[in-house]
Here is the input.
Amino acid sequence: MKKVITQIYGIRTVEDAVGVVALGADHIGVSYGKTKGTPGQLSCEEAKEIFDKVQSHAVRVGLTVSEDIDVITRDLLLTMPQVLHLSGDIEGITPEEVAVLRGRFPGLKIMQAIPVLQGVPKEEQKAFEYIKLYEGVSDFFLIDTKAKGALDIGATGLTHDWEIDRELVNSTKVPCIIAGGLDAANVTAAVETARPYGADSFSLTNLKVPGRKGIKDMNKVKAFIEAVRKARI
Here is the structure.
């Protein structure tokens, strides 16, 4: 039975980062940068402080929704995650531009978000085209739900068809992490269906406390990680 890694997103404080790593998270995800994007997005300096505190304990993933590779470059120089998660409009950065980023930062890994539309049949999904276009410049794919009308990918709390995920996973040699409305109640089934490299949670492992900077619910994170480990693949 292979290990399925866990990726916990929405880290906004050092305390949350240390807490989810202690629970066994393999990747921690931070949204950062000067381009306004996801809710709770941090400055580059705040993200770097978090990454510095968990050196060697978890893979440090930094999310950007920017589509300007020079802006992304500037933010990377300030922050330097191990993995750059590109989660803006996938058609806003070409594979050739991603290759330029890789050339600027030879040790950096790239995680390209792949959008799957909720309630749309497989035949109408562009995700399969995107996989083929970007697999030559990606170290990971993050398969996530894209909300109708949105440009960026993910942070919806919405699920999509896991059978589509399975076909995407099987269509590429790039390791795929599945996301989109996953929590302890459904992630075991999602993993057993899609058979991915990893599983990601953001929205459904958050605390619902207005005004609180640290948002991860450690009980939900613990339950999510345990549910991933229960999957038989």
